[in-house]
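Onboarding guide, step 5: your first structure request.
Type a short instruction followed by the sequence, for example:

Predict the 3D structure of this protein.
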Amino acid sequence: MLSLFLPLFLLFLFAGLPVFFGLIAAPAILLWLNGQERDIVLLYRNVYNGMDSFPLMAIPFFMMAGEVMNRSNITLRLVEFSQAMMGHLRGGLAHVNVLSSMLFAGLSGSAVADVSALGSMMIPAMEKQGYTRRFAAAITAASSIIGPIIPPSGIMIIYAYVMGESVAALFLAGIVPGVMIGLGLMLVIHFMADHYDLPAATKRASWGQRGNASLRAVWPLLTPVIILGGILGGIFTPTEAAAVAVGYSFFIGFFVLRTLKPRDLPDILIRAGLTSAVVLLLVGAAMAFKTVASLAHTPEIMADFILSLSNNPLILLFLINILLFVVGMFLDAGPAIIILGPILGPIFVALGVDPVHFAIIMAVNLTVGLLTPPMGLVLFVTSTVSGLRVETVAKATLPFLAVEVFVIFLITYIPAISLTVPRFFGFVN
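The system replies with structure tokens like these:
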């Protein structure tokens, strides 16, 4: 009977129950029906134990750093820098949108933060320059999913915590895939520029203007350098790096840009606290969910089923990508990683897939799921920011989504894309 907890959870999800409550209600009900009342106590104890972790403290710190960066108007400097570098291209502001997302990813590591910060600025600016609101919303949504792939990344911290992998290795492995998605989106914009008559290029910025824009953006652009450099240099752990990111963002806001005021602190703390609480509650509930999965021997059952389909790793990777893509339509990346990672990860490692490689396959695929209906969170946030219907945004993102799916399969079948950088730094054999 315990094996029914996953279908029951999906039923709750379709009925509109919040993910957190579905994760703890479905297994609890089945444990009670199965006469395992003692295990219900273990279930709810594991909700707290799942959150009580030093590595997970990095998540609220990175959330706060992102909030401070947003409030300090650092986003504007990144956009100005991107405009100076790429604004002269045809469809230039669309390219600027993508490049800004790639740069912003190194600050926040969140797709939702990207849409909220850049969307409110870029969508009206693109519309004013002659782009349709539909197109502007689509490229903003599509580029925002780069946020959790280029380090720092909250979902990679979660994966490393659940699967016992190195956070630094996963951070490094996400760099090239994230850049590839950004370049892929720019390539689509390039081909669409003439076909859809995107606005003509603006005047090319002079080298002096580019230099000035670079100087204005240098402080925020140093953030990922400090984070990764400190971790790789052994100066601090990923959690300590997140705390350093908070201190650095406050330093920039108060003393460099002077755009942050003491009166802004309560709102920053509240927003960061609420966002972190949602993520950590989901992590705790998913860890409890994972406990019941173990009691029901779900990993073994799933492993037997998957291996019965084929013994060819290439075919199985294709099928798993389809599964993850479908899961991403209904479940947020964090809970999906915690639920499916311990089930799928060991199977593919046993088949010879590098654990860091599989982590990137899973993380990128589920992140792209944020862009897919019916429950893609990025679609809903973009809809709110742009004022368009969710289905309108979803349809407009299809060309960009196709490119992102293509990149997923490139990552899947060419391991060097994700493993070369961590191998260079000695994290992968």
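Each response can be followed by summary notes, for example: The chain has one domain: 2-424.
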